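Consider the tokenized backbone below.
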């Protein structure tokens, strides 16, 4: 359109029901553009949202175990590790020793090796077990990349939506089941948090008794 006075540019914007937007303030003369600014902001927000959706951030989850863990608790913890690896996340496994258990590091080592073997189809040992004070730590890495896991999750979600439209009654039952599972997981996490607090408070007393 070329160089026009500001008043003329504003008149043109009003005539075409558009906004006069300055895009290069430092240019001489400043560069402006006629556009629907509301539409531009909406499209920019949608592009940014889509870009964030496709981003893959490396996340390290943590799971804490005791050397003499109960078989049922072990299965529960292993289930969480399996879920994390399926999501494409790394998992830091921490074995917490207390009291006399600190003199038996082989118990923690065997437990970590057992867990690694149980989930070897989904992950691999990225960092070998090593002692760190009262804890023994191992890091598991997923075979599946985060982007692949996200793509599969989106496909599964779309498939569930399509199935929900085709079978409304079945969808309601599935939603109720999923809600129950989420509630159960919340309860498990809550119990784990209580156990970890007990470990922190009881460990010094037991160590003192042994001394």
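A designed sequence for it:
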């Amino acid at each position: 359109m070329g160089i026009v006075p500001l008043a003329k540019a504003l008149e043109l914007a009003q005539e075409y029901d558009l906004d006069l937007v300055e895009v290069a303030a430092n240019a001489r003369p400043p560069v402006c553009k006629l556009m629907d600014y509301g539409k531009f902001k909406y499209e920019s927000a949608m592009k940014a949202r889509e870009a964030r959706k496709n981003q893959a951030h490396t996340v390290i989850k943590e799971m804490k175990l005791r050397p003499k863990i109960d078989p049922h608790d072990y299965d529960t913890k292993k289930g969480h590790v399996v879920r994390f690896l399926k999501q494409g996340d790394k998992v830091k496994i921490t074995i917490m020793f207390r009291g006399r258990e600190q003199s038996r590091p082989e118990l923690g080592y065997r437990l970590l090796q057992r867990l690694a073997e149980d989930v070897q189809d989904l992950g691999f040992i990225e960092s070998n077990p090593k002692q760190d004070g009262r804890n023994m730590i191992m890091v598991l890495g997923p075979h599946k990349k985060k982007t692949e896991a996200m793509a599969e999750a989106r496909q599964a979600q779309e498939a569930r939506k399509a199935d929900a439209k085709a079978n409304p009654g079945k969808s309601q039952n599935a939603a109720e089941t999923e809600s129950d599972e989420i509630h159960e997981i919340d309860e498990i996490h809550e119990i784990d948090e209580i156990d970890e607090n007990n470990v922190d408070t009881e460990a010094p007393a037991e160590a003192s008794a042994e001394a």
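The helical segments are 6-15, 37-54, 71-86, 105-118, 146-166, 168-210.
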